[in-house]
Amino acid sequence: MLVAGIDSSTQSTKVVLCRGEDGTVVAEGSAPHPDGTEIDPEHWWQALGSAGRDLLERAEAVGVAAQQHGMVALDETGSVIRPAMLWNDIRSAPQASELVPELGGAAEWARRTGSVPTMSFTVTKLRWLAEREPENASRVHSVLLPHDWLTWRLGTRQVGTERGADPVTDRGDASGTGYFSPADGTWLPEIAKAALGRDVRLPRVAGPAEIAGETSWGAALSPGTGDNMGAALGLGLREGDVAVSIGTSGTAYAVTLRPTADPSGLVAGFADATGRFLPLVATVNAARVLTVTARMIGTDTAGLSDLALAAAPGAGGLTLLPYLDGERSPSRPAANGVLRGLTSTNGTPENLARAAVEAVLCSLADAIGYLAACGIGPRRIVLIGGAARSPAIRAIAPAIFGVPVTVPEPAEYVALGAARQAAWALARETAGTGAAGTGAAGAGAAGAGAPPEWPARAAETYTADPTPEVRERYAMLREDAAVWQL
After folding, report:
1. Cβ count within 10 A of residue 37
2. Which pTM value belongs to this model?
């Protein structure tokens, strides 16, 4: 039995074809997306066709995981109204500030939706659309997330405007919209209506191991999920694990049995793809900080890694605040990068490279700390993402985090999670156990059993002497900058 997992990220589409029994990857493909903070969803579809050529039609089941929060607005015919606004589009920051008091404040948002909306959340994009593009807003009939839209396209046979099956989503991705209750497993349509100014049709929330549709070649479609939920499933995260991912964005998250509601807004109380929960902290600035710094000092990311390892801890007194494109955690949409401590003697390529690596890791150490403040302390930190392949990141991370760090072998964990979900749904269907329901805490997982056990991938553990003084200097700069970047 072969199953396919799709990861439609900000930068590209990846497809893995796996054996459903054990997750062994037998083939894979990829295709790039245009850069930017908004995109015509048709680019995702074309990239999927390219990445999945000669792969997808070999699969008996397919799952899609994709970047969270994106707004795909459709009219009554199912046509896309405007380019999808992505998670990294910061234009809706003012609307996020407007929405928080409208519902009764941050604590009420956290209680009802598990999160306090920031500029990334879909609900803020709905309000932006209503205020800035009222003509487009008046045409909105339904709103999908990127993975919803791709799953829908895979499961439809387009003839004119006939679109076939209704769109579906899952608890995990839905929990990042700002108008869904992770604890109850239900939409909050009144919040979406208040943001857009009109009723909007929302996709059906499928159970975590449900067959949600069928492709044109007869493969089963699982519900799909968001990218972070897919990675958690692909990694096989268990309670006590905290995953730290360094990609286009940075994230720190954990799987828990109980919902999280953090009124500070630093921890988003998401659901996961199995019926449990996935409290998560996200940063806007991550691997791009490394590529920008490499460009400034005339090298590439491999060269930056070598230079960083040639410098001593603390980068000779240089400290970088890596908020190059504003920041989400903490919420500082108007912030920018700050370099402190530069002198005539420490301004070397080695120290600049080290400062960049330490800055990204300090920002993610803050994220781990935000989870700890909600009672989620790591027994193990699992480091993934494109930047986790950097020798400097691997070596310096345990010094900044203050604990050993486990780095699994490089793999497309988001796509693997989507494939594992597809194998799960197909196994339930084959066994004749029916669809899994959703609902209150853990109900989906209880009704659906457990995902198939795929062997853990090889991993290395890295240790280093802690460098708390680097964290202390970073914290001082972070707080000082908060004053002048208001």
Report:
1. 16
2. 0.92
